[in-house]
Each structure stands twice: as C-alpha cells, then as structure tokens.
Amino acid sequence: MIRGGDLGGTHREESVAVTGLDDAAAREPGRRFGQDAVFAWTPGAWRVLACDTDAMSVSGWAASLRDRARSRTAG
C-alpha cells in the first residue's frame, strides 16, 4: 500500500502501484475509483495522466549527489 498526500500534510490517501499498464489501461481504474488523475513513471519521465481525458503533464527526472547521500542514510 502506498500513501500519497499534499505538501502540507493535511490530506493523505491510500493508493496502489501497478506495473505493466499502458496509459489507457492505467486511466481506467482511476476513472472507476473517482480519481482526477493517475501517475505514470518510466525511466525517462514522470507523467500525470488525466482520467477523464487524454490530457497529461510530463516532467523529467532530476538527481543530485545530495539526494543520493540522504537516501543512503535513511535506509
């Protein structure tokens, strides 16, 4: 189970991660469960897919040495 939420920490909801779906198949359970959008991750991009249209927002990935050091100490 995955929990997502807003930056302020005032809203959280449980979610699931599913692998192997194309965009149309990923949007379907989002529509069924009343979601506005679903996330899609690939090695090249992070995308937000609208559930009721074909709209999407695409962002790339960024990494820094600072992020890597922090993740090593957190584990």
What's the layout of helices and strands?
Blueprint: E1 2-5, E2 12-15, H1 23-32, E3 37-41, E4 46-50, E5 56-59, H2 65-74
Antiparallel strand pairs: 1-2, 3-4, 4-5
Region (Disordered): 1-23
Pfam families: DUF3293
InterPro entries: DUF3293
In short:
InterPro entries: DUF3293. With 75 residues, the protein is an alpha+beta fold.
| Gyration radius from CA atoms, angstroms | 15 Å
Beta-strand percent range: 25-35%
The SSE order reads: EEHEEEH
Strand order of the largest sheet: 3-4-5
Give the overall shape, derived from the CA principal axes: globular
Average predicted confidence as pLDDT: 83
Characterize the largest beta sheet: strand count, sense, and whether it forms a barrel: 3 strands, antiparallel
Structural class designation: alpha+beta
Distance between the termini: 19 Å
Runs with pLDDT <50, length 5+?
A: none
User: What helical percentage do the residues reach?
Assistant: 25-40%
**What is the strand tally?**
5
Domain count: 1
What's the quaternary structure here? single chain
The helix count comes to 2
Pfam families: DUF3293 (PF11697)
InterPro entries: DUF3293
Region (Disordered): 1-23
Word description of this protein:
By secondary structure, the protein is α+β, with helices and mostly antiparallel strands. The protein has one domain (2-74). The protein has two helices and five strands; from the N terminus they run E-E-H-E-E-E-H. It has helices at residues 23-32, 65-74; strands at residues 2-5, 12-15, 37-41, 46-50, 56-59. The chain has a three-stranded antiparallel sheet with strand order 3-4-5, covered by helices on one side. Strand 3 (37-41) and strand 4 (46-50) form a beta hairpin. It is globular, with a radius of gyration of 15 Å. The model has no long low-confidence stretch (mean pLDDT 83). Residues 1-23 are annotated as: Disordered. Pfam families: DUF3293.
